[in-house]
Amino acid sequence: MNAYLKGLALAGLTSSAALFASAASAVEIEYWQYFFDARVEAMETLIANFEAANPDITVTMTHFPYADYRTKVAAAIPAGEGPDVVQLFYGWLNDYVEADLIQPLPADTFPAAQIDADFFPMVQAMKDGDNYWALPTAVRSLALFYNERLFEEAGIDGPPETLDELMETAAALTKLDGAGNITQVGITAGMTAQDHHWWREGLVRQFGGDPYADDYQTVNYNTDAGAAALDFYTNMFLGDPPVTAIGFMDEPQAAFKAGRAGMHIDGSFRIGSLNGTRGLKWGVTELPANADGTRSNYSSYWVNAITTKAEGEKYDASVKFMQYITSDEAMQIWLDTVGELPAKPSVGMTEANANDETFGPFIRGLAYANTTKFANESGQRQLMVEMVERIQLEGMDPAESLAIAAEAEQKLLDDYYAE
Amino acid sequence: MYRNLTIRQKQIVWAWAFLAIPVLFYTVIRFYPTGNAILISFQNWNLLGDRTWAGMENYQKLWNDPVFWKVFKNTFIYLLLGTPISLVLSFVIAYHLDKLRFMHGFLRMLYFLPFMTSAVAMAWVWRWFYQDVPIGLFNNILAGFGIPQIAFLQSTTNALPAVLAPAVWAGLGFQVIIFMAGLRAIPTSYYEAAKIDGVGWFTVLTQITIPLLRPTIVFIVVFSSIGFLRIFDHVFNMTTNNPGGPLNATKPLVLMIYDTAFNGFDMGYAAAQTVVLFTILLIVSLIQLRLLRST
Questions:
Q1: Has the ipTM of the complex gone over 0.95?
Q2: Domains along chain A?
Q3: Is any Cβ of chain B less than 8 angstroms from the Cβ of A344?
């Protein structure tokens, strides 16, 4: 019996030694991102291409549902269980830098001056001195989707170019039933979706304001411009007659997808889910300009970063992998598969991409886009949601509601930057 | 050494040997995290960096947070509306179902079905029932009669009862089953005696049935109170776009904890809220256990 056990243990040892020996010849690095069909598919293509070019490196991808992603990453990396290269939302980066969980990209492979020149300017938020902390493969911006069938039916020839035209077009597209209930909205509305970005970085700036000061540490929208922007926004559903309703068909994108909304402001990531919708003929155009022709947009992005877990040959492999996933080739693959916009003008602004019927409006929007530096994106969004709800549900004076929101957001920012 | 023990001592050793597994399990899974949560409530932690000592800061913040008091109130509204309504409804249903022979099993199954359904799926179906025209079932019916539509979820006054209704409905089946078991357990001799004395149904109900159901009632009250104090999935799923909204009108304490921890990543503050919830649950349970003991 004892001899048998000894033999078994010995066999186990030798076989595991053999296993380790074979693993040692190739470097294996781990990559994490959240689960979204097209993103996973795009990354699989990128990994296959990368492994073909670097046969000694294996990249394993792990993905989680979006809802758990932030928590899982935050729990795993400090515990040393995490990935070597990780995808993070740009707004989270500060926390990761401060907690010493990611390492800067090496300046010799990723020279800051070169990146400044090559990438769209909003990426510079990831820079610290001579080093970049992280880099995106793709960026996102907003645009105005419109339902071509409903436009035709209402006899409108083209999408609106200005904010005034937007309201006129929306009014023409709104339908009521006999009891006066809205059954089709001219344009969707809801701060819970993308409208809070449109309001902050779009409308407030277009009405002559600057939503934040001091590198997004001071709230600056409690001004005449902010009030005018809020007035424009609430007028869509509180005006006479209203051209939309908050919560119409539960979610704005659902209403648009179902063909019950004439127009809808959303991000480039929505393209994929609208593409396969039966019976929906849609077009997309740049966000409307104000009376002077000024446009403004919001852009956001997910970055890839190397964690502090990657050391030695894993670190070298991670750097190589980072180089590939921020290359022009990778960006084109990402655009074609996911529909997210290239982070470099050299890929984005090519003749074919910038004039693309679908991607063009988003890519052109990047030229005048701003990126909000959030301390707590969902918390800051919630304040916008409540700002509108106080006006709509409690009949509060818009100026007062704006002031409450500004004060609450300032407090949130102060608490965050005080730490 | 074991040999020198008395039989009584040996029994104790064996008892502890078997108890060791659940004790270990509870220590690792329950007591350690509970203790840790209490510790975190005195610290600041964003899950990524180091924990830093905060003293009573989180509790002071909680005391001065108007959202917390709003949420505190909501939690007790869920409790004070939900528990009596579900208690009365389930008793009425069980009382009549107990007397019914025709299709008894089928009806009982119908009442029990919602209890077995996933709360998430149910919440979403109800969420769509409550929508405005053109998709909401209730409002489409109202619109069909030319009645102006009601803002169920998009209202600071209607939203909480609208969210509570499916939660009550979902728990009903279980309570009906418990009540029926309680009703069956009452000896028929009492009823026979009442019949011989020629007592009316109301007297039978108030003098025999309800007093003898007391243990059942206490159990259901304890059970459903804890359930309503911890309400989360119905609220979260019916208001995912604006969790606990509009304007925190439906937000219960558990949702606030979730939001603080996993959207705000303010673990210390979330832990302080958890400690408060734990204390409330402890007090409510102790009071109710005391009531149970006096029977």
A1: no
A2: 26-140+300-367 (3.40.190.10), 141-299+371-418 (3.40.190.10)
A3: no
